[in-house]
Every structure is written in structure tokens, then in C-alpha cells.
């Protein structure tokens, strides 16, 4: 299965998850460049087994829940079929990550099944009358070219798909595999759990019928193809959704509601499939697309009536409509990290789930941000962190934005294009590199991008009309003066006569994105996608321009100063939120100095792994590099003593974003220095965040260290 998430295959900019899910994406990119599902599975298994505080019980099915009282779970009992063993787990806290909500259901947690009525939450995509319809289940298959003809004799139970709507209403390609056949879906008109075997049989009949059509209809060059794998376990999309203190709804996704208790985010469109699945004439999905990433509140991650029960995955507190977005696996995963940290936080303080929201919210969000959890637009204010008290300097910092490179290529201005850059604190003009044999006219429009997590043309600030002289081969100045109330990005749209040419640089530049006015593929697939709400992100696309930029320059910026590494932000939001050095091909230093000596035993670093780069476990697409180029590869962390600089840690061949350095004994120093020696391919050194603590941070002090207390 594709582990899809907020980036939605690169449609959302800076949408990739950080935290544990982000670490898995980056490590899988390195270990598993071909997207082998078995290597993905073993990576997950290895990471779980490497955690000393996790006891793993595979193939254990929960059969029974014992209650301490009506509102508190005492224990759950499971059965291991292979060893015929019954196990009982007693705890003060439980998290239901079962998908169907087996634990929560047997505990008596309030839930909803099916589609709510339109008036229940005021959702325009909900039906007028509530019903029991759900998203259907799926079964996939993989094929292989064996280099010689292979016959296929269909089993008697295979569906003749020419007698169904599949051939007319869906897209069948002989080279598609696995999740590319997401539309092989059925069962939403039935009980997804209790009718599971019937649904499986129908899906298998459809799979073999589709394969028979590919092999034997004569419409495909498929002689050398054979089936390599057919799923036997049905992939369920939806069943019970349990009720928390808040039910996330359609409006929260479309309007990107900024919850005070935000603890996770999503970005997949509201993607609702017809209950009758592949046999309907309707499009495969009904899509509503927000303008960017949206927030998920803590109140949706615990039960409203079972006080020691947290929720994660498919069964969290969302409406059926909102579930159309939150259901994708990477979004489920970062919600799982939030729920797991919440349970550990509650245990460390002896409180119940709701108490976190009511009495400990700010402290809990600090815990999450320390652990690189996926929260948007919230900076870490941490009284235990020593770094904000230090003055921060760097050997060099980027003070201008200039995307020019000598190998830049000509780009004819045959359609509108755009680029985006951070404005901090102001912009006075933008120079655009233009090539023109004939005279012509440019129209350049400047837009605010709206919310800090959005990268779209939102509110028009100004439009400039510029005449380009004949035989222009260089910089053209676009006058534009803007000093926003706070740092933010500006979206610049460029149109002009098609005999004018811009330049494109084949190199990523931190904090800068470029776009072309080219609708995404889904807008061109009416059989599969019906859009009820679109967004500029679908029309201003970045995928084909990923790691390339239109050539422009801005003469002054404070967006990349060294102070950014202590501003508390661990993701791009209204700007890149990182220190960046200019390209000098030499080591750089970032130095922290206090007014008096400090005791330090732990240093934490968040490194730049370019969250705009879309990654996926089975490689819906493949990157050109095994390790994120922006990640620091070799660096040292040093501290100053009376004898001079001493090395605290010498990190080599790093490929991780979150680096934690713990010392067996604390040191005393007035200055810490990070010396950047090499990246994994980028020409720019960059660091997102640096923190220092006087003691090892443990859960009892507010942070889960992944180590035993």
C-alpha cells in the first residue's frame, strides 16, 4: 500500500510529514529505492524492535475488554493463533489503533457508523438524510513481465467486467500495479466488517476479471505479463469512527481551522468514494481540495466517554466527510505519534486524556515539538532550553536571494509562470532574468499567500507592467516595495508575450519555489475524479519544477539569519525558518555564546531534510538521490574550554533530520559551536533548529527520550 499523506503526491508544498513518519520516509528512501514492499515492512519491524520500551506481540487479536468501571478500561485480552496463547494486557492507558475500533467498541465508547446528515455538522458534502453507507474496501494485484508469452485461463468465478461499468467508467492500464488500482473498491453498501468475506470474494472476482480483460481482450500488448501477486486480505477504508470532545468536519479542512489544541496535520483532499465502488457510473472520487495543510486537534484523539482511551488511525473523532481526508496512512501515523505521546504524558502525570486539553495543553505541545512532532505554525517556547538565552552568530549567512547559475536554461514564456520567496523584513524590488530578441511586455503580479502554510496566490498586492527592450539578455527590474507586518512569503506571477524567455536554474534554493500554470493530472481524469471544490494548488503546480527555479534575485533578506535556529519553529511556516549559508564550498560555523558558563548534557538538532520533497514508501515516483541532499552529512558540535575548542560530538555520514546528542557527564561552557563540513549533495549548508539542556530530557521532565526512565 502507498503510505500517502499531506503532500498528496507533491501537490501540497512543504507537505511531507516530520516526526517518526518523516524519519521512516527518509530512511526508506535510502534503503529501499525501488519501493519493495517487503523491505518497507522489514524497516517498520526493525524500528519497532529497536525500541527498548516496546514489547511487540505480532498476530495477536483482541477478543475481550475488561472494564474497571463504565468509563475506565482495566485490561484487554488477545489470542495468538499460531501459538494458541491467550494474553491479557493490564494498563492505566490504552490507544485504539485497530482501524475498526475493536477495543473502543468493546469498551462501550461512543461512535458513529455511516454518513451523518447534512444538518448534523452543516457539511455541504454530507447527504440530506443520514445512512449507513461507507467507503468500500479494496484488493490489489501486481504483475510482472517474464520475457515470454504467458497464457491466463480465468477462474469460473471471475467477473466479466464487460458486463459492468468498469470498462466504461474506470481507467485500466496494463502497466499499472498495486495502489494504481485504488478504484478496485466495493462493499460500502454493506457492513464492512460483518460482510468482510463476501466483500473479499467479490473483489477477488473483480481482480481476476480485470486481469482476464487485460490478457485476453486483445486491447493490450500483455502477452508476456503474468500475475506476480494478488492480495488475500481486504484493505478496509472505513468503519466505526469514535466520538471525542471534538468531531473534525468538512469546514475545518476546507477553512484550515487553527485549533488551539492542534497536535497533527493533514493535507490530502476530502476524497469520498461512492459506496457502490467500481460498479457505479459515478466518478471514482468526489474531491474537495483545501488551499494547503490543515490542523487536527487533540480533542479528536481521545474518547469522550472512556477516560483512559486514546484514538489513532482510521477510528479518530471525525465526520464521514472529514474522514475522506484523515484516513490516509501518513496522516494516521502522525496522529498516532500525537496519541502515543499523549498517553505517555498522561501516565507521567497520573492524569486522564481530557485533563491534557483542559489543564496541560501548552506543556504537552512543548513535549511534542521537542520530539519533532508534526504541528504547523507553533513555535516551541521551552524554559528548559538554554539556546534562546544565547547570542547566535554564523561565519556566513545568506543575505540575498539569487537563483542564477551558469548552467541555467532558456524557458519560453508560452504560459503563465510563478515563483515564491520569503519577505523578511521587506522587499524593495525584484530582478528577473529575461532573454528577448524582440521588444515585449511583461505583467508581474505580487500576491500574499494567505495562511502561513499556504503557497498559493491569495490576495493581490500589486501588478506591474514592464516593457522589455529588444536584445535584452540579462536582468530586468520589477519595482515592488512591501514590508509586511510580520515575515511571510510572496507569490509572484509572470505573464508575457510568448517570444519572451525567462531563465530556469537547475538547482534547489532554500525557501524558494517555482510554479507553472499547468493543472495536475487528476483534473484531466473525469472518470476517476469529480472536483466539488478546487484550489489554486491544483493549477499552479510544482512537481515538474521540483528542485528547479526561475532565475530572479532580491538584493536583501533576513530570512536565513542564524537566529532562526532558536526561533522554535521546526517546519517552514510563513518562511523557511532556518539558517542558510551562501554557496562558498567551505565549512561554516554557527556559534552560541552565553553571558556566563552553562551546564550542558544534551544537545538536540533539527536538520533540513527539505519537507517539500515528496516521498512515499513504495515510490509512486522515484527521487534521483538516496539521501536528502540538504541534510548535513558531516559536522561537529564543539564547546570552548580554557584549553580551546573541544569536540563534543563528531557526526559523520549522517542521514537523519533529528539528531540528539547525550553526554554521560555534563560539561560547563560559555560557547557552543556547530561546524558544518559537508552535506549530502546540496551546495548550501542549512540548519533548522538547535536546542541545549542542562540534563538528559526524560518524560517525567516533559520529554519522552525513547529510553527507559
From TrEMBL:
Keyword rRNA-binding carried by entry: no
One matching Pfam family: FAD_oxidored
Keywords: 4Fe-4S, Iron, Iron-sulfur, Metal-binding, Oxidoreductase
Domain of life: Bacteria
Keyword Metal-binding: yes
InterPro entries documented for this protein: FAD/NAD-bd_sf (IPR036188), HdrA-like (IPR039650)
GO molecular function: 4 iron, 4 sulfur cluster binding; metal ion binding; oxidoreductase activity
Record protein name field: Pyridine nucleotide-disulfide oxidoreductase
Organism (species): Levilactobacillus hammesii DSM 16381
Amino acid at each position: 500500500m502507498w503510505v500517502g499523506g499531506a503532500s498528496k503526491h507533491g501537490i501540497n508544498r512543504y507537505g511531507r510529514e516530520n516526526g517518526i513518519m518523516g524519519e521512516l520516509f527518509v530512511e526508506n528512501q535510502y534503503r529501499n529505492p525501488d519501493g519493495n514492499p517487503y523491505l518497507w515492512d522489514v524497516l517498520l519491524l526493525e524500528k519497532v524492535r529497536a525500541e527498548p520500551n516496546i514489547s511487540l506481540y505480532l498476530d495477536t487479536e483482541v477478543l475481550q475488554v475488561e472494564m474497571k468501571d463504565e468509563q475506565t478500561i482495566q485490561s484487554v485480552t488477545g489470542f495468538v493463533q499460531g501459538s494458541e496463547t491467550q494474553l491479557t494486557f493490564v494498563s492505566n492507558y490504552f490507544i485504539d489503533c485497530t482501524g475498526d475500533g475493536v477495543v473502543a467498541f468493546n469498551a462501550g465508547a461512543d461512535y458513529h457508523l455511516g454518513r451523518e446528515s447534512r444538518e448534523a455538522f452543516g457539511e455541504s458534502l454530507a447527504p440530506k438524510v443520514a445512512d449507513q453507507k461507507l467507503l468500500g474496501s479494496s484488493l490489489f494485484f501486481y504483475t510482472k513481465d517474464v520475457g515470454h508469452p504467458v497464457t491466463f485461463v480465468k477462474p469460473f468465478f471471475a467477473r466479466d467486467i464487460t458486463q459492468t461499468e468498469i470498462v466504461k467508467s474506470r481507467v485500466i492500464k496494463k502497466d499499472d500495479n498495486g495502489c494504481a488500482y485504488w478504484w478496485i473498491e466495493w462493499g460500502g453498501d454493506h457492513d464492512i466488517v460483518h460482510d468482510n468475506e463476501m466483500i473479499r470474494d467479490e473483489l477477488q472476482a473483480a481482480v481476476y476479471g480485470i486481469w482476464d480483460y487485460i490478457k485476453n481482450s486483445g486491447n493490450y500488448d500483455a502477452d508476456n505479463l503474468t500475475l506476480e501477486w494478488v492480495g488475500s486480505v481486504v484493505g478496509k477504508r472505513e468503519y466505526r469512527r469514535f466520538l471525542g470532545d471534538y468531531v473534525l468536519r468538512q469546514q475545518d479542512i476546507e477553512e484550515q481551522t487553527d485549533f488551539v489544541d492542534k497536535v497533527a496535520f493533514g493535507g490530502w483532499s476530502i476524497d469520498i468514494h461512492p459506496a457502490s465502488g467500481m460498479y457505479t457510473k459515478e466518478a471514482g472520487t468526489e474531491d474537495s481540495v483545501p488551499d494547503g495543510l490543515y490542523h487536527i486537534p487533540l480533542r479528536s484523539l481521545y474518547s469522550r466517554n472512556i477516560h483512559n482511551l486514546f484514538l489513532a488511525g482510521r477510528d479518530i473523532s471525525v465526520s464521514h466527510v472529514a474522514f475522506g481526508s484523515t484516513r490516509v496512512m501518513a496522516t494516521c501515523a502522525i496522529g498516532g505519534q500525537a496519541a502515543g505521546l499523549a498517553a505517555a504524558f498522561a501516565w507521567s502525570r497520573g492524569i486522564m486524556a481530557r485533563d491534557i486539553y483542559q489543564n496541560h495543553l501548552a506543556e504537552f505541545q512543548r513535549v511534542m515539538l521537542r520530539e519533532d512532532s508534526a504541528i504547523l505554525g507553533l513555535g516551541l517556547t521551552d524554559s528548559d532550553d538554554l539556546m534562546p538565552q544565547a547570542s547566535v552568530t554564523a561565519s556566513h549567512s545568506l543575505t540575498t536571494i539569487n537563483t542564477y547559475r551558469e548552467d541555467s536554461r532558456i524557458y519560453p514564456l508560452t504560459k503563465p509562470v510563478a515563483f515564491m520567496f520569503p519577505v523578511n523584513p521587506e522587499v524593495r524590488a525584484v530582478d528577473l532574468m529575461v532573454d528577448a530578441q524582440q521588444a515585449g511586455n511583461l505583467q508581474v503580479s505580487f500576491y500574499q499567500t494567505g495562511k502561513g502554510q499556504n503557497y498559493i496566490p491569495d490576495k493581490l498586492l500589486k501588478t506591474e507592467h514592464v516593457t522589455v527592450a529588444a536584445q535584452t539578455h540579462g536582468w530586468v527590474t520589477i519595482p515592488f516595495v512591501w514590508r509586511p507586518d510580520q515575515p511571510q512569503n510572496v507569490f509572484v506571477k509572470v505573464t508575457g508575450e510568448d517570444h519572451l524567455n525567462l531563465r530556469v536554474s537547475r538547482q534547489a534554493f532554500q525557501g524558494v519555489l517555482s510554479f507553472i500554470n499547468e493543472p495536475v493530472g487528476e483534473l484531466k481524469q473525469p472518470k476517476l475524479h469529480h472536483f466539488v471544490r478546487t484550489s489554486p494548488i491544483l493549477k499552479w503546480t510544482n512537481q515538474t519544477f521540483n528542485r528547479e527555479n526561475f532565475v530572479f534575485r532580491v538584493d536583501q533578506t533576513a530570512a536565513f539569519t542564524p537566529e532562526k535556529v532558536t526561533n522554535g519553529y521546526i517546519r517552514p511556516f510563513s518562511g523557511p525558518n532556518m539558517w542558510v549559508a551562501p554557496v562558498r564550498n567551505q565549512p561554516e560555523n554557527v556559534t552560541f555564546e552565553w553571558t556566563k558558563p552553562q551546564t550542558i548534557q544534551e544537545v538536540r538538532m533539527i536538520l533540513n531534510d527539505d519537507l517539500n520533497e515528496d516521498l512515499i514508501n513504495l515510490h509512486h515516483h522515484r527521487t534521483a538521490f538516496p539521501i536528502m541532499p540538504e541534510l548535513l552529512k558531516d559536522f561537529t558540535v564543539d564547546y570552548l574550554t580554557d584549553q580551546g575548542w573541544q569536540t563534543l560530538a563528531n557526526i559523520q555520514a549522517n542521514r537523519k533530520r533529528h539528531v540528539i546528542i547525550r553526554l554521560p557527564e555534563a560539561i560547563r561552557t560559555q560557547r557552543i559551536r556547530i561546524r558544518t563540513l559537508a552535506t549530502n549533495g546540496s551546495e548550501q549548508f542549512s540548519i533548522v533548529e538547535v536546542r541545549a539542556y542542562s540534563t538528559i530530557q526524560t518524560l517525567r521532565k516533559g520529554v519522552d527520550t525513547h529510553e527507559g526512565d
